[in-house]
Amino acid sequence: MSSTVRSRALACRAAAPAVAKLDAVQKTALLHRMADALRDASAQVLRANAEDLRAAQANGTSGAMLDRLRLDETRMAAIVAAVHAIADLPDPVGQITQTSIRPNGLRIEKVRVPLGVIAMIYEARPNVTADAAALCLKAGNGVILRGGSEARHSNRAIANALQLAMTEFGIDAAALTLLDDAGRENILELVQLVDIVDLVIPRGGEGLIRFVAEHARVPVIKHYKGVCHLYVDAQADLDLALRLLIDGKTTRPGVCNALETLLVHADVAQEFLPRAAAALSERGVELRACEKSRPLMPNALPVSDEDYAAEFLDLKIAVRLVDDLGQAIVHIRRFGSDHTEVIATLDASAAQTFIAGLHSAVVMVNASSRFSDGGELGLGAEIGISTTRLHAYGPMGAESLTIERFVVHGDGQIRHPQTPIVAIATR
Amino acid sequence: MSSTVRSRALACRAAAPAVAKLDAVQKTALLHRMADALRDASAQVLRANAEDLRAAQANGTSGAMLDRLRLDETRMAAIVAAVHAIADLPDPVGQITQTSIRPNGLRIEKVRVPLGVIAMIYEARPNVTADAAALCLKAGNGVILRGGSEARHSNRAIANALQLAMTEFGIDAAALTLLDDAGRENILELVQLVDIVDLVIPRGGEGLIRFVAEHARVPVIKHYKGVCHLYVDAQADLDLALRLLIDGKTTRPGVCNALETLLVHADVAQEFLPRAAAALSERGVELRACEKSRPLMPNALPVSDEDYAAEFLDLKIAVRLVDDLGQAIVHIRRFGSDHTEVIATLDASAAQTFIAGLHSAVVMVNASSRFSDGGELGLGAEIGISTTRLHAYGPMGAESLTIERFVVHGDGQIRHPQTPIVAIATR
User: Fold this and answer.
1) What is the ipTM of this complex?
2) For B421, nearest residue in chain A (alpha carbons)
3) Which part of the chain is the Aldehyde dehydrogenase domain (chains A, B) (predicted)?
């Protein structure tokens, strides 16, 4: 098994330069063909997904996790649309991001180039297979996908469709390599393939990410849990705040940009918390509230520090009444995961304090946490949401899968034109 | 010892937010004061450096390594000037690098924020102490410096001067923490301080970098060796090429952007190699040349693959006659270290092929490899030259010590305004 991982990774590395050499027009055409191939294979993918769902249900998989795994016509159409959208994005490769002329006449350019080979290790959501493949190829990279066993059939069906289009286009399908799940052994080998793999992106449960982070020799961008907060300020529009709360908590509780904690300023708690409790309870959300907020929220259970730190990924929410904005910031810095935080306020200076006081990857003012997503932020799609403050932070699109290098144009400049050139004395 | 590293790193982390909160004007003022303090302490620093040099010579340290360690009035002035230059650079923190408005009215900004706490592990060159401290603080970070024992006194004297200015400015000096050398044990602990240190930058010999890379749990940006190439094309201006060769090889052979290998196109070898041999030999450079080039270079020794892969850091050069540009590219991809490569050519299409064919961090057209340096490329100074294709690639200035995050401004947008909000059925 081990040697298979290495040899397949080497095949991906060997195939990657051909992707890097495609120009913008060619890559756009390739990705549209891949999207079309995926659309044409929709029925097969849905059949494969049904198989995965049956197995998951037989294993007693929970509601929200099952939701992450499930595909239907609508979600398939969204996956295909995302690949088309990625195809039509501006090509990041070759972009000149900065230019300057030095006093000595040197012209310095910073130019985007592909990273090389990117390994994506993920669980559950089969759309990641298509998104990650399309984004990595758009950025001129080879990609190694290692999905979870629970989505095995779905991932295989999606990859098959994409690879078919690549082969027809004349690109070695090894540039998109899908490793079949074989426990964590193949992850262990994959994340140590220095000189073959340039970056590993783990995306999934905390256990998976810690496992990768602990064993990786290859650079890792971590996509840790999303413990996202909504803070309702003293100056909030409470109707607006309620909409953000319901959208953030209930429209898809199983994803990382769902809200997990509600913080409410004492001045508006009396009015807001009973309304929030009613709206959330009506939608089946279990409330876990602090001492001060419980009297305002019938049905609320007591909350613990573990709840404040938890990524429920389910219809549960932690609630805390805070004295002021400062206490909200302290709470988020202590319990948050640097993913996404939201403030509802009409006070621009409170918004500014909230933004400056937090170093989370995404900070929203009067907008739902559910927009913390590559597609929604204009990246076409995302390969993950980095909670590592390095290389990329927050939703990562194609641009995040490139690196800027220096290209310098001169006409004979040397560093020491005036200095007589002599051998150093010590020799 | 161990608990000291951890507690000192925690003190740095606690001091860092005060640096992050300084505005651009304050940071500029602070850094100018630090530069002045360093100038005022020049005599002490030079005395400390003399002590380090004596010890190094007693240990039999080699010419080029001794050169890296040595400070004199000129180099001290350059170090002070670099801190002033960093002070006057545009502040990267708070820069809005991208803005867009989504169809739903959301305004998306990407905004630079500090990384947090940066640990710099380095050897020999004491100027790194000042450069790294200034760059990290400019970018709003705390910095932990762990220099090599050979520069112990120099580093301590430089850090003392800088910390004095910080204290006078009202900034906790722990934001610039210098760990005294204590073998590799304190490195081992430092690079595993997840949640305290955000980034480790090792800069020094291959042994040090491999040690850090193998043991780090914290993200690492590696500054591996510089095996820099000059390729003299068939269409080169040979006088210009000779100047690039002499500047690149002989003006400071002990640094990573010095040339290590000369590749010459067969069409110009007859004319160029004897001139190159004469000019290099005259300056005390030992030649190690391939079979085809040795007849054109009197005194040249045979070259080996080990020589091609070597970072000599000394007055030695490997020479190879290549059939064409393609062979030069293949050679560099095989033996290079992704640091800096130079082409001498008047043929724009050859230059383009060279740039596209290589993925090194810096590619120069008709300019000396010695410009592969933060100061020379306009970054004010550099904290290192990344040969890791992640986060930063090539010389790293203050901007490379920040990360872009998302700030989103809305007026109540929610993700699912049309969808009736219902609890998911599976609960």
Assistant:
1) 0.90
2) A251
3) 11-282
